Amino acid sequence: ECGAQLRWEGRQTMDALEVIPPRDDPEKKPCADVYGESQHHSLTTSTTGMDVVSKVLDDDNLLREIILCVGFPTTLVCASLVCKCWYHHASDRKFLSRFHEGNPSHLLGFYLEDTDDPSVAAHFFPMLPQPAELATVIRSARFSLDPHRSEMSDMMGCRNGNVLISLYDGRDFTVGVHSPLHPERGLAVLPPFPELQIQDGYFCGMNDLLLSKEEGDGLSYIYVLVESTMERTKSMVHIDVLRNGDTVWRRHLDLATDRFLCPRFDPKAVLADDKIYIASAQRDIVVLDLMGSSISTILLPQGVEYGDRDTTLARANNASGVYLIHAKKLELCIWLHKGGNWLLVHNICLREMVAGLKMTGCEDENEATAPLRINHVGDYDEFVFLEMSRCALHLDIKYKKLRKVYDVEEKDRHLGDIHPFMMIWPPTFPTLKNDYGNAI
Question: Residue limits of the F-box protein AT5G49610-like beta-propeller domain (predicted)?
């Protein structure tokens, strides 16, 4: 269908060109002695060209390979507008999975949260330069959180084009969801968290863990509460789920263990492949298996312990494992836990990179006096935001490139929390019209 349409348009164009008579120049003669033979040659050439186009556009496998090269979700949507044939290829789930593997979500920018003053709304900073296709997206978005400043208590993070903020009306806390790339949606407010009566002889060890995962065209949310005995001998984990489109939280799981769980708030917990990874104690990771209804523990790699913002977790790219990123002096080590073992996948020395930035406290490339801390890490260990010498640094792990993206102002005591904002995935495709043509 698509190939037929393009062949017709090409045939029409070529015909229009062929009605132009040859120039009558006595000094120059056509390649053929007879005009009819020259016109026949033109017809043959145009027909051959159309045959080549037809072979490409009528070959679904080859067409999909071509569409894979468009590079950005925005241009993928544009490609889907050519005709129904292209639309079905571009919006196919298997194709989208392949496209995302070769074209991971782009970092559009980051929010910087002032952790000293909750009354100040987090500010968005674009990552520049951006490709023209994504620069247009940034210009048309509405990133400001100022309209919600009066009721906003703090920022909870970003997920797939959404910004989660904690709202307080003077009595209750709720969670608001702001969509900068779709400002027409307004601020969505999640139902209040489920209330739980803490058992006698127990105390609440964690009650503010909110995780999210992509589901359909939106997000589902998971709320985790941990309570433990006063004697610190055993614990109970309660997990509630708010699925995309639901209006009430539903109890998903209650897990009891004879071990004392000591969850840490730093590094932040990670959800990957229906498993929740929570940092615990000095060198443990507690794994809550939502499908297997079990609790297990992973020990950190040999010689690694939780310190002052020097260790963090990130989900693996196939959602079947978890990364551990650890900073020590000017060295960054990245492990992947999969199949019950830790595998060191990156060992990055930052000494020369840091020296090239010429920051205060880092002038001597042999010994940097300013400590290196991890502020935030992107999913799939693609990038890390580091904190050093009152500066925010962005490290592209794949290309081993480090650059400074923010200087702390003199009035601020420290940097604050960084929340990366990624391009939304998958893109939103237009709805097909119920007609018999190729239009959508």
Answer: 155-429
pLDDT, tens digit, for every residue of 46-70?
556 666 666 666 788 888 998 999 8
Residue 85 resides in a domain = yes
| Angle, helices 35-57/2-18, rounded to nearest 10 degrees | 160
Distances (CA, A) of 331 to 211, 278, 307, 314, 373: 30, 24, 15, 18, 11
Does the residue 80 lie in any domain? yes
Q: Is pLDDT above 60 for 27? A: no
Provide the whole-model pTM: 0.82
Which of 340, 345, 307, 339 has the alpha carbon at shortest distance from 324? 345
Q: How many CB atoms are located within 10 Å of the residue 44 CB?
A: 10
C-alpha count within 13 angstroms, C-beta hemisphere, residue 339: 1
For residue 88, the enclosing domain spans 54-100
> Beta 383-388 vs 270-272: how paired, if at all?
unpaired
For residue 187, the one-letter residue type is L
Pick from 267, 276, 202, 264: nearest CA to 240: 276
d(CA 103, CA 82): 21
Q: Domains in the chain: how many in total? A: 1
- Which pLDDT score, from 0 to 100, does residue 234 have? 94
The reply to whether 58 falls in a domain is yes
- 4 within some domain: no
Read out DSSP for 179-221? -TT-GGG--EEPPPPPP--PPTTEEEEEEEEEEEEEETTEEEE
Residue 245 backbone dihedrals phi, psi, to 5 degrees: 100, -15
**Contact status, residue 73 vs residue 425, Cβ threshold 8 Å:** yes
